[in-house]
Amino acid sequence: MTAIPVEPNRRDFLFIATGAVAAVGAAAVTWPMISQFNPDASTVAAGFPLDVDLAPMAVGQVIKVFWRGQPIFISHRTPKEIESAQSADWKSMRDPEPDSARVQPGREQWLVVSAICTHLGCIPTEHQGNFDGWFCQCHGSQYDSSGRIRLGPAPRNLPLVPYEFVSDDKIRIGKA
């Protein structure tokens, strides 16, 4: 049997054109739907560790950085602040914790804590209050230079933040 060549007609063109438009329309609808399942760029960035260069910090200086959308205090404590924190009677405090448990051994001059008051979530001011630590002006909570609650309504110490030294003058907040 011999094949008879068929000339494309208008119906064939409309069939191909309709199929092409349907394929483009399906892709146009599917692409945004699939891409919305990906996390937002700020969410991705918030989960990653944060490297902080400590070299420019002066002794006695406190800086605030943001990690996972949360403010973090990094304090370069003075020898006087370290001695005061180590000699305080921590066993009688509301949330008892020795200074040595709040810093890394051999690097007592560096304290890294959450900058959120444990009472109602305010951000305390550094180098204020009776203990030369942090003072929450909203409700009067006072923390010492180790971030431990000493006076006021706050129930707990300023929370510690996971960090590690990657060099002598650089820390990494969070885990990779």
Domain count: the total is: 2
- Strand-pairing-aware structural class: alpha+beta
Helix content: 10-25%
Strand content: 25-35%
Shape: elongated
**CA-CA gap between termini:** 71 Å
The CATH superfamily of the largest domain bears the name Rieske [2Fe-2S] iron-sulphur domain
User: Major sheet: size, sense and barrel closure?
Assistant: 4 strands, antiparallel
Number of strands: 10
- In the CATH scheme, the class of the largest domain would be Mainly Beta
Secondary-structure arrangement, i.e. CATH architecture of the largest domain:
3-layer Sandwich
Spatial order of strands in the largest sheet: 5-6-7-8
| Rg over C-alpha atoms, rounded to the nearest angstrom | 30 Å
Mean pLDDT: 86
Number of helices: 3
**What is the quaternary state of this protein?**
single chain
Low-confidence stretches: none
The CATH topology of the largest domain, please?
Rieske Iron-sulfur Protein
